[in-house]
Amino acid sequence: MSEQQDTGGPALPTVRYENWRVEVAVPPMWRGHDEDVNDMTKRCEQRRQEILRHVDGVNKNDVTIEVDKREVCPFCDSTWELMPEGYPDVGYPACCPKAQDAYAAMLAERKREKD
Ligand SMILES: [Zn+2]
Fold it and tell me: What is the extent of the structural domain holding 23?
């Protein structure tokens, strides 16, 4: 086992701190409304307006609503992934048979529309 030598160069990889921001968490009782995009957008916009009204020196463009989007399977809620090259069902959903069946049905429907 070799000890890591200090080469005097930069650490690999180098950690860079960027995109600094202050986030305001949504109240716990809002959870469960997450699926309703319109409702959550309205609630977050109301909270944004409250912050702008009550905090000195904050520019309205500095307070933004951010949300992470993730593609998930509508049947099993797994992160959406497709079968990689080398698998017999390449390009099909990787998570569950229901998604694979629905995908096959969608492809058949598209083919029918084309013909
Ligand atoms: Zn699935």
Answer: 13-69
